[in-house]
């Protein structure tokens, strides 16, 4: 899987691989996409940031990615 998902690849991903599954946003099928979700976290609506932060940490742990962002860590608490 490349670092960029095209529309067809995104459609094939199960909801469980998205940081916000009900909106199918922030896909995280691999470590590169976890890092991308971390980088784009600031664009997430404020009311959804706690949910996304927890998902980022869950996927990061699964793929061996260390998250050091104090903003994400604080939202995940």
Structural features, described:
The protein is mainly α. The protein has one domain. It has helices at residues 7-12, 31-39, 49-63, 70-76, and strands at 18-20, 25-27. The protein has a two-stranded antiparallel ribbon. A hairpin with a 4-residue loop joins β1 (18-20) and β2 (25-27). α2 runs antiparallel to α3 (49-63) and α3 (49-63) crosses α4 (70-76). It is globular, with a radius of gyration of 12 Å. The termini are far apart. The mean pLDDT is 95.
Q: What is the compact description of this entry?
A:
By secondary structure, this protein is mostly helical.
- What is the helical fraction, as a range of percent? 40-55%
Helix run count: 4
Total tally of structural domains: 1
Major β-sheet profile: 2 strands, antiparallel
Mean pLDDT: 95
Low-confidence stretches: none
The radius of gyration is 12 Å
- Beta-strand portion reads 5-15%
Number of strands: 2
Gap between N and C termini, in Å? 31 Å
One letter per element, helices H and strands E, the order comes to HEEHHH
Instruction: Categorize the overall geometry.
Output: globular
- Enumerate the strands of the largest sheet in spatial order, edge to edge or round the barrel: 1-2
Structural classification: mainly alpha
